[in-house]
């Protein structure tokens, strides 16, 4: 059944497909990726778009970029160092991610 559903979802365009839920991954990670895919993370950018009044919209880590999904997870200078360490630890080389939805 899972294979059938997964094949159906994979045949949809990326904007309509659902995230692949893995039983080997903790549920909170699956939910995080699902929310990321649906642009539902509570970044400052998303809060502003939903009408929440904020004094600043810049990243809390580097204070320079707009606090959105792409910046928080990929483009922030503080996060970039973390990703480099993760890729090194996993012995992965290659081009780094440019957008959060490339996960």
Indicate the structural class. Answer: mainly alpha
What is the number of helices? 5
Percent helix, as a range, is 40-55%
Radius of gyration: 16 Å
What is the CA–CA distance across the termini?
25 Å
Protein model, in words:
By secondary structure, this protein is an all-alpha fold. It contains 5 helices and no strands. The chain has helices at residues 2-10, 27-37, 44-49, 69-75, 77-89. Helix 4 packs across helix 5. The longest helix is centred in the C-terminal third of the chain and has 13 residues, at 77-89. The two termini are 25 Å apart. Pfam families: zf-RVT. This is Reverse transcriptase zinc-binding domain-containing protein. Residues 15-83 form the Reverse transcriptase zinc-binding domain.
Write the layout of secondary structure elements.
Layout: H1 2-10, H2 27-37, H3 44-49, H4 69-75, H5 77-89
Helix pairs in contact: 4-5
Defining key terms:
103 residues, mainly alpha, 5 helices, 0% strand
